[in-house]
Amino acid sequence: MKIEGEMRIGEAARWAMKACAPLTGYPRNLIAIFAAIPVIVLLVVGIPTWIVTEWDAPQWVYWLSLVLIGWPVIVGFSRLSRHWQVGRMTRALGQRGVPNPIAVGYEAGDNALIVRQGAVEWNAPWSIITDLNPVGPYWVFLAQGTPLYLPKRCFASPPEEAAFLRDCLNRVSPETRSRSRKAVAFVDGVAGA
């Protein structure tokens, strides 16, 4: 079965961390990192400040405001940075003649998932696909840790979507099927409707 459509360059960038969550532990890893930042700042800057001021001011108010202001600044900067990077890459690729959007195709072959993006073709043997799950507006195949994004908008209808996913789920290992509970539930839900 073949599915075809289009993708804009960099459109899936905001979903990359969530797509790899089964491997990275996202968002727990980011929560731990962001939780550690205020602790480090507190230890490095806060304690000396507290000692110097010798309890004259309520320092907790200062640190609480720093965290409440700093957290949105860090998250906002991260999103702005990603947006800027994707925009820069899109413009640079456009100057090099790469079309945007680009034609994409997905085929559940006998031995592999075949993914085409423009003139590039990847063959991901079914044995290396470890997960198949929905992430935002995509179905994401993890092939040796590499996310392969299939936009849900490429399907004409939920039954077509379920048929393609069923075909893929029938070709992956039982372990992959067990890790792909949301895909299995979607296929079963459409079949039962």
What does this structure look like?
By secondary structure, the chain is an alpha+beta fold. Helices cover 52% and strands 23% of the residues. The protein has helices spanning 16-19, 21-24, 28-53, 59-95, 158-169, 174-179, 181-192; strands spanning 2-7, 102-108, 112-117, 120-125, 129-135, 138-143, 146-151. The strands form 2 sheets. The chain has a 4-stranded antiparallel sheet. A hairpin with a 2-residue loop joins strand 5 (129-135) and strand 6 (138-143). The chain starts with a strand and ends with a helix. The model has no long low-confidence stretch (mean pLDDT 83).
Give the structure's gist in a few sentences.
By secondary structure, this protein is α+β, with helices and mostly antiparallel strands. Helix content is 52%, strand content 23%.
Helices and strands in order:
Layout: E1 2-7, H1 16-19, H2 21-24, H3 28-53, H4 59-95, E2 102-108, E3 112-117, E4 120-125, E5 129-135, E6 138-143, E7 146-151, H5 158-169, H6 174-179, H7 181-192
Antiparallel strand pairs: 1-2, 2-3, 3-4, 5-6, 6-7
Helix pairs in contact: 3-4, 5-7
For this entry, give a set of tags.
single chain; alpha+beta
Radius of gyration: 23 Å
Low-confidence parts: none
| C-alpha end-to-end distance | 22 Å
Helix count from the secondary structure assignment: 7
Can you give the mean pLDDT?
83
Give the strand content.
Answer: 15-25%
How many beta-strand elements?
A: 7
What portion of residues is helical? Answer: 40-55%
Series of H and E elements: EHHHHEEEEEEHHH
Give the class from helix and strand content and strand pairing.
Answer: alpha+beta
Specify the biggest β-sheet. Answer: 4 strands, antiparallel
How does the overall form come out from the CA principal axes? Answer: elongated
Instruction: Give me the side-by-side strand order of the main sheet.
Output: 1-2-3-4
